[in-house]
Design brief:
globular; binds guanosine-5'-diphosphate; 3 domains; 13 helices; Adenylosuccinate Synthetase, subunit A, domain 2; alpha/beta; Adenylosuccinate Synthetase, Chain A, domain 3; about 35% helix
């Protein structure tokens, strides 16, 4: 197997950063294919915490090539800052190790202004956007007025496209959103400076990946967010603005379906969600508080407290089917230590109807009653454990029950934030 997709199978923040970082050891190339700089993976290497938002997490491994695919929307300012920060720590010193798709779309200052102003106007009805301009950039991509890296490389084309967009956006910002107009010159000059920094990295990444896969190089595709945030298959409208399912690799990296060989889903041993939207297994009492406290469940980029609840097999089962998972990695099981009883949601009930998968209607999902199964907990801390056999019997039973309910084999269990705090049930994933 030479290509592997990693996707989150809940509402994001599943600990993908750590798992990708581990899998990256085996890979030659690591690719982002959707989303923007709202991803925010936290990596802990040798006790040092590094947050990457745009560049694939594999960047911390010497000699690996990181690719930002065409499906990603890129804030060039943030990207330059991230490159600078990584270079200061001795990473990414060779420019051949980062490749940016020439057809990836640029996040522009007006996208951020629109994002923030709209969220402010929504008040109570806000959708929980991070205000980084990602949604408005995808809107422009679909409306066919977006600006891509290939446009940025040509000063004249860039100037024309910026002028066209800014004329329209300034009317919208002023008349509808009651915001200040943005200045053409300022944006033009800032983006020309950014072009000089980023131009050496820009290539046809789809073709590059095709060549490398054909030559048997190991490629890891790194998903951001989670399946329940997919714009088509997630809990719409409380979703992100891109497709997050494994199938999005084909469009977002320009790689053909036959070139995909495996899909690993990342799931927490419980559930969290950031921002608004239905969350059937949410715990507002002490259980939720314990998960938040022991799991450090606060947003990496925003610092917002995450909503916490029991493991929801309905969510992960739906995601397993949508993504075609070939294996599952279960993270943060250490956080469950000390709970006398652990609940697992096996299905939903709503007005006499049973659901084994997530219903499409947000209203129905909001009103479902989770059907729980209670499993005995364990008191022992798990962080030092490195093999399945050494896990307390109840923790092993918990993992087996999840495998059974979801229908996918667990191949990796994460028992702590550090790279080495991992139980590898199958040592190789490629
Ligand atoms: P991602 O966006 O999916 O990578 O998730 P985040 O990085 O937002 O959140 C994962 C958080 O949990 C980070 O702070 C990780 O360092 C931490 N983490 C990852 N795996 C484990 C684990 O198995 N146990 C514990 N206690 N923390 C973990």
């Amino acid at each position: 197997m030479s290509t592997l997709i990693v996707v989150g199978v809940q509402w994001g923040d599943e600990g993908k950063g750590k798992v990708v970082d581990l899998l990256a050891r085996e890979a030659d190339i690591i690719v982002r294919f959707q989303g923007g700089n709202n991803a925010g993976h936290t990596l802990v290497v040798d006790g040092q915490k590094t947050i990457v938002r745009l560049i694939p997490s594999g960047v911390l491994h010497a000699g690996k090539v990181c690719v930002i695919g065409n499906g990603v929307v890129v804030d060039p300012q943030i990207l330059v800052e991230e490159i600078d920060a990584l270079q200061q720590r001795g990473y990414l010193t060779d420019s051949a190790l980062l490749k940016i798709s020439e057809t990836a779309h640029l996040i522009m200052p007006y996208h951020k202004a629109i994002d923030l102003a709209r969220e402010r106007l929504r008040g109570e009805g806000r959708i929980g956007t991070t205000g980084r301009g990602i949604g408005p950039t995808y809107e422009d991509k679909m409306a066919r007025v977006g600006i891509r890296f290939v446009d940025l490389l040509d000063e004249q084309v860039f100037g024309e496209k910026l002028a066209y967009n800014l004329q329209e956006k300034n009317i919208y910002l002023g008349a509808i959103l009651k915001e200040q107009a943005l200045d053409y010159r300022q944006i033009f000059e800032a983006y020309c400076r950014l072009r000089q920094r980023l131009a050496p990295y820009v290539i046809n990444t789809s073709r590059y990946l095709h060549q490398e896969i054909t030559h048997g190089r190991k490629v890891l595709f790194e998903g951001a967010q989670g399946t329940m945030l997919d714009v088509d298959h997630g809990t719409y409208p409380y979703v992100t603005s891109s497709n997050t399912v494994a199938g999005a690799v084909c469009a977002g990296a320009g790689v053909a379906p036959q070139q995909i060989h495996g899909v690993i889903g990342i799931s927490k041993a419980y559930t969290t969600r950031v921002g608004s939207g239905p969350f059937p297994t949410e715990q507002l009492g002490p259980a939720g508080e314990k998960l938040r406290r022991d799991g450090g469940e606060f947003g990496t980029v925003t610092g917002r407290p995450r909503r916490c609840g029991w493991f929801d097999a309905v969510v992960v089962r739906t995601a397993a089917r949508l993504n075609g998972l070939t294996s599952l990695a279960l993270t943060k099981i250490d956080v469950l230590s000390g709970l006398p009883t652990i609940r697992v949601c096996t299905g939903y009930e709503h007005h006499g109807q049973y659901y084994d998968e997530v219903p499409a209607s947000a209203q129905v999902l909001e009103g479902v009653t989770p059907i729980y199964e209670d499993l005995p907990g364990w008191a022992e801390p798990l962080t030092e454990i490195r093999s399945l056999d050494a896990l307390p019997a109840n923790a092993r039973r918990y993992v087996e029950r999840i495998e059974h309910l979801v229908g996918v084999a667990v191949k990796m269990i994460s028992v702590g934030a550090g790279r080495e705090e991992t139980i590898l049930i199958r040592p190789s994933f490629f």
